[in-house]
Amino acid sequence: MLVIPAIDLKNNKVVRLFQGNYEQIKVYGDNPKDYALFFEKEGAKRIHIVDLDGAKEGKPVHKDLITEIAKSLKISVQVGGGIRDEETVCFYLKNGISQVILGTKAIESFNWLKELTKKYPYKIIVSVDVKGEKVAISGWLKVSEIDYLEFLKKLNELKLFSVILTLIERDGTQRGVELERLEKALKVSLNPIIIAGGISTIEDIKKLKNFEKKGLLGVIIGRAIYEGSLDLKETLKIANEP
Question: Which residues act catalytically here (predicted)?
């Protein structure tokens, strides 16, 4: 099971939001590249970078910083936040990014997403950000009428690298993982799932490890690493156990 440390960028700084709220923000550092290199050194095989300013504005804001970070690493980097056209997808894939993460545009323009996955098979990750049972969009600022399980079923026809299932109510809270919606998602999704939101203890990792054979590809961890409730090396060791 992949353990994927998250680097959320706002004003060129490493930050975390509480439940996606831009008003509740904590700054952890002003050199994102140092964090990325540290995560690589600790043994992470993949890093998750989100351009928070980009997600809010609907276009990339930190693209130069992100590609600079990716080029300094030997491990895979997945990037999201404000990616809403093919030009940006192409730019990232040509500049050291392994997979791009699409959210709002993927939900609003399914045919566009379908064509993109034909052009770039397994290079696209779709982020399904869930509030209650519905999918949130626009940097989580709006909640759509789309049921998350129905949308996951729709994604089954596409050649995706994976789907990220983010449980917004848990994100940045360190309240622990919630398994109910994950179990439902794994039952309907043919694409591998990466879970995000609330993962904060080794117990959470052990619980999630049980879902690896059911299609859980990995976990994204942010605040728990920054706050020290999870030790990255220990987490990686448990996640990598057979």
Answer: 8, 129
124 Cβ contact list (under 8 Å, min separation 6): 89, 99, 100, 102, 106, 113, 116, 117, 158, 160, 161
Quote the pLDDT of residue 139: 54
Q: What is the pLDDT of residues 192-222, one digit of tens each?
A: 999 998 888 999 999 999 999 999 999 999 9
SS3 of 2-19: the string is EEEEEEEEECCEEEEEEC
List of the chain residues with pLDDT < 50:
none
Domain boundaries, the chain: 2-239
Question: What is the rounded distance in angstroms from the CA atom of residue 196 to the CA atom of residue 177?
Answer: 8
What are the phi and psi torsion angles at 34 (to 5°)? Answer: -60, -40
Q: Which amino acid is at 79?
A: V
3-state secondary structure of 88: helix
pTM for this entry: 0.92
Catalytic residue among 8, 53, 171, 204: 8
pLDDT at 153: 97
The sign of the CA dihedral 166, 170, 173, 177 is negative
Let me know if 171 is a catalytic residue.
Answer: no
Spot the catalytic one: 30, 51, 53, 129. Answer: 129
- Does the annotation mark 147 as catalytic? no
Cα–Cα dist 112/119, whole Å: 11
The CA distance from 134 to 42, in Å, is 36
